[in-house]
Every structure is written in C-alpha cells, then in structure tokens.
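Q: How would the structure tokens look for this protein?
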Amino acid sequence: MQTEIGITSIASAIQLSIAPVFLLTGVGAILGVLTNRLARIVDRSRVLDERLQANPEGMDHIASDLRLLALRATLVNRAIGMCTFGALLVCLVIVALFVSAFADAHLGKVIALAFTGAMLALIGALITFLRETYLATRSLRTGRA
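A: Here is the predicted structure in token form.
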C-alpha cells in the first residue's frame, strides 16, 4: 500500500509541475533572444570603438552611438537578470511542489508567492526588453538617440 501512495504522489507532483516546466522552457527561449541581442550590441560597440580609436577627431556621432549602445546593453542586461531571477523562482515552484507532495507540507503560500514573483520578474524583463527595442528602433528612424 505504501508503494502505491508513493507512486500516486510522484505522478501527482509531476502533473502539477508540467505547467511550470513549460514556463521555464519559454523563459529559456527569451533568455536566448536576450543574450543574442546583447552579443550583437557588444559586437557593434567594439566596431564603433575601434573606429573612434583610429580617428578620434570629428567622431562625435560615434561617441553618441556608443553611449546609446551602452544604455541598450544595460537594459538588456537588466532584462536578462530579471528573466534569470524569474526562472529561478519557477524552479523553486517546481521544487516546492515536489516537497509538498512528499513531505506532506503545506507550501501553497510559498508556491503562490514564488509563482507570482516569477511572473512579476518576467513582466519586468519584457517591459525592459520593450524599452530597449524602442531605443534601437527610435535611433534607426531618427538617426540619433
């Protein structure tokens, strides 16, 4: 009888953790997009910095572009941090679901708080990413920041 309860508990915990695992997959995909974007910003910054070092006179527009790229990199880095924090909270949700199933602990509040925190972190990351893409497209349209 004890074995059946253990198997039932495992099956139930796995079923409950499927949605957070899918969320974790989505957050991982967003992290991939953000890190690729950061890499592009860094590469562009290096190219512009080399141009500026080669010819420092009359290159005010390059210095301005470098400042904009630095701001964009900061925003993407913040979004990466918030996404990573959200992913860690989703992992905490999954662990809490399993602990709750096996230790007969009542972790509903912990699970709810961790999930809410993960959603808030993801919302913050997406808003920050939206801000960064706005800066990037605005500088393309106007030619300046």
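The chain has one domain: 2-142.

Residues 2-142 form one domain.

Upvote if useful.
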